[in-house]
C-alpha cells in the first residue's frame, strides 16, 4: 500500500494526456539539493539567512544576519540558488540568493538543473500551488512539519517545454519587478516617516543636543505630559460568564494588532446588544485610537490601532485603553506621536513583567511630547498623514500584484496544466 511519502500526482489534461510539449518529471530531474556544510566560525562568507529572514510570497531577501549570529553547521549557498524553508512549508518561504552566504539547516538549498529547467523559472514553479500543496502534503511531523529531500526528490510534476518556461518566467519577472518598485516606494516612505518623527519627536524628549536644531528648540519649549492633554480610558471588566454568542464585539488585547484589528471568530467575544446601555461609556466610535496594554510590543511594531466603521459595533474591554483627547490636542498629531520612536522608547523603559509584559494607564499618560499650537500640530500631522497614505497605497498595490501573480501561476501551473497565451 502506498504511504503518504510515496504519493505522486501526474498532471493530465481534460482528455487524459499532457498538453503537447509538456512532460512528467521527478523533482530531482530539475533541481539539485545542495548540501554543502559550513561551520559559521570558519567561513569567510559574510551573510547568514535564517527562516526568519524569508518573507512569505516574496523571492527577495531583504534582511539577513551574519555568521557570528549563529553556531552549529549551516548550509552554504551561491548566488542564484533557491533557499526553501523545508520546515513549516505552509508558510511558503522561499527566496533567490543574490549573493553567496550560509543559511539555516531548516532550509533546503536548491540549484536548477539547466538542461531540464530554465533556472529563472524554478523559483516561480516552486511558488505555485501545485508545488506548495504537494510540499505541505509530504511534510512529516506534527509540531514542526518538515520535508525530507528523499521524499521530495521522487515527486512527479508536469513541466512545460523550455520555450514556455521562458515566457512564463519573463512575464512573472515583470510582475515581480513592478511589485518591488512599489515596495521600494513603501520602504522609502517609511524612512521618510522615521526622519520626520525623529525631527518633531526627539527620541529622548528630556535631552537635546548641545546645539539643538530649531525644531528641537520648539519641541523643548512646548514639552508636556501626555496626561495633561489626553486621558487614557481603561476598558470595562466584562465578566466571561455573561458573554453572549452574538451582539457587540468586545475589544480585547488579542484583537489589537499593529495598525489593524484581528476579529477572527476564535479570538472574538460578544456582549448582548440589548445590554449596551449598561456600559454606554465603553461603546467605541469610528476614529477612536486604542492601545493594548498587555504585550504591547510586537517586534518593531506597537499594538495601536484606529477604529473604523468596519470594526463596529464594539465595546472596550479591560487592558485595552482608549485615548480621550482634550481640545488642545489634534487626533492626527497624537497618531503621529504614538507611532514615534520617542513614544515607544519611553514606554519600553517602564514596561513591567517578563511572562506577560505590560504597561499601565499611568505609564502612557506619563510620556512626554511637544504640544505646539493646534495650527502647528495640524501642519505637522499633514506631513505624517500624507506619507502614511502614500505608503499604504503602495502596499495596497503590492497586495494586488501578488494576487495577480498567484492567479497567473494557478492558470499556468495547475492540475491540469494550462498554457501561456
Q: If helices are DSSP runs of H or I spanning 4 or more residues, what is the number of helices?
A: 10
Computed CA radius of gyration, to the nearest angstrom: 26 Å
Biggest β-sheet strands, sense, barrel: 4 strands, antiparallel
**Largest beta sheet: strand ordering:** 2-9-6-7
Average residue pLDDT: 88
DSSP strand tally? 21
Low-confidence stretches: 1-15
Share of residues in strands: 15-25%
What's the end-to-end separation, in Å? Answer: 41 Å
The helix/strand class is alpha+beta
Helix fraction, binned, reads 25-40%
State the shape. Answer: elongated
Describe it for me?
The chain is elongated. A hairpin with an 8-residue loop joins strand 6 and strand 7 (94-96). The protein is built from 10 helices and 21 strands. The protein has helices at 27-30, 121-127, 129-137, 149-152, 162-200, 214-221, 331-338, 341-350, 361-365, 374-412; strands at 23-26, 31-34, 37-38, 48-49, 74-77, 82-85, 94-96, 101-103, 107-112, 156-159, 223-225, 230-234, 248-251, 269-271, 289-292, 297-298, 301-302, 304-306, 314-316, 320-325, 368-370. The strands form 7 sheets. Strands 2-9-6-7 form a 4-stranded antiparallel β-sheet. Strands 3-5-8-4 form a 4-stranded mixed β-sheet, with no helix packed on it. Helix 7 (331-338) crosses helix 10 (374-412). It is of the alpha+beta class.
Amino acid at each position: 500500500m502506498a504511504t503518504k511519502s510515496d504519493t505522486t500526482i501526474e498532471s493530465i489534461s481534460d482528455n487524459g494526456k499532457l498538453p503537447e510539449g509538456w512532460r512528467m518529471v521527478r523533482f530531482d530531474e530539475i533541481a539539485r539539493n545542495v548540501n554543502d556544510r559550513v561551520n559559521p566560525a570558519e567561513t569567510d562568507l559574510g551573510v547568514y539567512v535564517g527562516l526568519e529572514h524569508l518573507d512569505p510570497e516574496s523571492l527577495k531577501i531583504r534582511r539577513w544576519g551574519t555568521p557570528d549570529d549563529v553556531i552549529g553547521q549551516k548550509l552554504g549557498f551561491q548566488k542564484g540558488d533557491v533557499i526553501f524553508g523545508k520546515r513549516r512549508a505552509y508558510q511558503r518561504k522561499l527566496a533567490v540568493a543574490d549573493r553567496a552566504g550560509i543559511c539555516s539547516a531548516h532550509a533546503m538549498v536548491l540549484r536548477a538543473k539547466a538542461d531540464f529547467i530554465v533556472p529563472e523559472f524554478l523559483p516561480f514553479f516552486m511558488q505555485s500551488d501545485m508545488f506548495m500543496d504537494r510540499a505541505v502534503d509530504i511534510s512529516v511531523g506534527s509540531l514542526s512539519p518538515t520535508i525530507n529531500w528523499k521524499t521530495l526528490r521522487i515527486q512527479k510534476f508536469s513541466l512545460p517545454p523550455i520555450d514556455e518556461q521562458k515566457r512564463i518566467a519573463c512575464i512573472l519577472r515583470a510582475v515581480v519587478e513592478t511589485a518591488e518598485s512599489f515596495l521600494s516606494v513603501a520602504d522609502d516612505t517609511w524612512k521618510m516617516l522615521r526622519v520626520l518623527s525623529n525631527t518633531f519627536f526627539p527620541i529622548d524628549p528630556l535631552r537635546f543636543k548641545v546645539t539643538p536644531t530649531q525644531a528641537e528648540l520648539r519641541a523643548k519649549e512646548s514639552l508636556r505630559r501626555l496626561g495633561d492633554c489626553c486621558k487614557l480610558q481603561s476598558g470595562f471588566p466584562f465578566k466571561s460568564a455573561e458573554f453572549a454568542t452574538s451582539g457587540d464585539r468586545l475589544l480585547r488585547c488579542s484583537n489589537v494588532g499593529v495598525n489593524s484589528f484581528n476579529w477572527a471568530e476564535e479570538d472574538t467575544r460578544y456582549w448582548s446588544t440589548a445590554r449596551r446601555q449598561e456600559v454606554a461609556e465603553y461603546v467605541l466610535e469610528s476614529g477612536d485610537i486604542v492601545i493594548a496594554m498587555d504585550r504591547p510590543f510586537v517586534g518593531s511594531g506597537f499594538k495601536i490601532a484606529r477604529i473604523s466603521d468596519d470594526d463596529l459595533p464594539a465595546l472596550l474591554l479591560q487592558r485595552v485603553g482608549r485615548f480621550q483627547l482634550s481640545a488642545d490636542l489634534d487626533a492626527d498629531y497624537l497618531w503621529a506621536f504614538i507611532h514615534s520612536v520617542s513614544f515607544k522608547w519611553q514606554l519600553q523603559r517602564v514596561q513591567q513583567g517578563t511572562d506577560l509584559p505590560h504597561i499601565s494607564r499611568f505609564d502612557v499618560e506619563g510620556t512626554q511630547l511637544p504640544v505646539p499650537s493646534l495650527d502647528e500640530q495640524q501642519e505637522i500631522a499633514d506631513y505624517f498623514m500624507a506619507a502614511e497614505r502614500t505608503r499604504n497605497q503602495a502596499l495596497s498595490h503590492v497586495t494586488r500584484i501578488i494576487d495577480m501573480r498567484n492567479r497567473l501561476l494557478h492558470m499556468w501551473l495547475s492540475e491540469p496544466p494550462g498554457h501561456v497565451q
